[in-house]
Amino acid sequence: MPLRNAASFPLAVVLAVLGVAPAAGLSDGLLYVTCGSVIKLQSYSGTQHCLHSHDISYGQGSGQQSVTGFAGVDAANSLWRVVGNEQCIQGARIANDELIRLQHLGTRRWLHSHAFASPLSGYQEVSCFGRDAVSDAADLWHVELDGPSELWLADAAVRLRHNVSGTYLANHAVAYQRPIAGHTEVFAVKGNANSAQTRWRATQGVFL
């Protein structure tokens, strides 16, 4: 099982969640993001903060679990499990424009977006929603690869386009104050596919 920076998060917890894990990630010398991989998503060329969530709800908008960017060490709250469609078996590589869901490992809720304004900038809110068996179409994201590969590779630039609204997952340096000082706003935005704010990369994790 290919592993990146194992000391930065509790591997035993990750493995317990994953169950059986075939070692497919490095079969041809390249590190692929696959169905079932547990990853950190880092802003590629913007803040370089990691996509983060925690059991703190927004005080406005949907009132759902908040999603932020965070540069600090908080491994349990910056890990996401990649879940494909119904036909995507564990270890299968993720192709360009494929639909995925991202499940927050700590709270088991899904990365979600909907027609509420984000708290700081007024763009579209991104939250965490549902549980293991509670999910809807607003949890689906298209993987848009920014490079020559037709398969999602670790550390390669990628954009995530929301299936329902067509907006892109984004992060900028606009920061929250208490109680989550140092966290930056994560939001979804239209017409900004080429912006540094919408580019991410999979870094650190368990790549199946």
Secondary structure layout:
Blueprint: E1 3-4, H1 11-18, E2 38-43, E3 50-57, E4 65-70, E5 80-83, E6 99-104, E7 110-117, E8 124-129, E9 141-145, E10 158-162, E11 168-175, E12 184-189, E13 200-206
Antiparallel strand pairs: 1-13, 2-5, 2-13, 3-4, 4-8, 4-12, 5-6, 6-9, 7-8, 8-12, 9-10, 11-12
Describe this structure in words.
- Helices cover 4% and strands 37% of the residues.
- The protein is mainly beta and 208 residues long.
- The chain has a single domain (3-13, 22-206), classed as Trefoil (Trefoil (Acidic Fibroblast Growth Factor, subunit A)), CATH 2.80.10.50.
- The strands form two sheets. It has a seven-stranded antiparallel β-sheet with strand order 1-13-2-5-6-9-10, with no helix packed on it.
- It starts with a strand and ends with a strand.
How do you describe this structure in short?
This protein has one helix spanning 11-18, and strands spanning 3-4, 38-43, 50-57, 65-70, 80-83, 99-104, 110-117, 124-129, 141-145, 158-162, 168-175, 184-189, 200-206. By secondary structure, the protein is mainly beta. The chain is globular and about 45 Å long.
